[in-house]
């Protein structure tokens, strides 16, 4: 496995990019019935969603590809369990709710991130969900903007600065996000760079795959207060 979301980027994500996970936690709490208590959080990152759901009384297992994310999550949320694995290799246990928050299915960290393997994954998740179980996730579509101010951005906070460029390939199916991070360590800044490639899925394609499996679908344009940007779509799929 190569390394993505290494320690500095993992910490920055945890510190300043958790609003989606926060909104999703609240939505899950609202949607879950009183007997739905087990959550499998695939692509659990630094454990923000797991921590909030554990505080609401859910029993949470998180799975993530990045060892640094898993380490952070274990320290932050000792009451949940975290496993390092690709979502495409993991054998999910029976559960009531499955979440994949923050474009998890799109990342090409694992070469298996394609339509065929995603179909197999959705089928596996359908089989393992308890009756009336919920699958909640979001993804990027080819409509995502890679021009204007989003194409080259500088984001700054007190202890880090990040330069991000976005680019779509000629087919419009692969997004490349080039991230250069300067993370403050005492009086100096430590530089790191990661290149994340993501597969863009058409809304109708994923909707079709899920409905063929037997899920009932609801499309979302936000998990809560913060609307998704153009080309970012959420789905609640009910078994
Ligand atoms: C944008 S972060 C979102 C993290 C978390 N869900 C949240 O909302 O804060 C995407 C996460 O997906 C994980 N990820 C990407 N591809 C994965 C894969 N194939 N298997 C497991 N985790 C994966 C990354 O390591 C990263 O932690």
Explain the overall architecture.
- The protein has 239 residues and is an alpha/beta fold.
- The protein folds into two domains: 7-141 and 201-238, Vaccinia Virus protein VP39 (Rossmann fold), CATH 3.40.50; 148-198, Single Sheet (N-terminal domain of TfIIb).
- Helices cover 28% and strands 35% of the residues.
- The protein has helices spanning 7-16, 19-31, 48-55, 67-76, 115-128, 203-213; strands at 38-42, 59-64, 81-84, 95-100, 129-140, 152-157, 160-168, 174-185, 188-199, 216-220, 232-238.
- It has a seven-stranded mixed beta sheet, sandwiched between helices.
- It binds S-adenosylmethionine (SAM).
- S-adenosylmethionine is lined by residues 4-5, 18, 20-21, 43-45, 48-49, 63-66, 69, 86-88, 101-104, 107, 109-110.
Quick tags:
N-terminal domain of TfIIb; 28% helix; binds S-adenosylmethionine; 35% strand; 239 residues; 6 helices; globular; alpha/beta; seven-stranded mixed β-sheet; four-stranded antiparallel β-sheet; Rossmann fold
Concise summary:
This protein is an alpha/beta fold and 239 residues long. Helix content is 28%, strand content 35%.
Q: Which class of the largest domain in CATH terms?
A: Alpha Beta
Biggest sheet, spatial arrangement of strands: 3-2-1-4-5-11-10
Helix content: 25-40%
The dominant shape is globular
Q: Name the CATH superfamily assignment of the largest domain.
A: Vaccinia Virus protein VP39
Biggest beta sheet summary = 7 strands, mixed
What value does the average pLDDT take?
96
CATH architecture of the largest domain: 3-Layer(aba) Sandwich
Q: Provide the succession of SSEs.
A: HHEHEHEEHEEEEEHEE
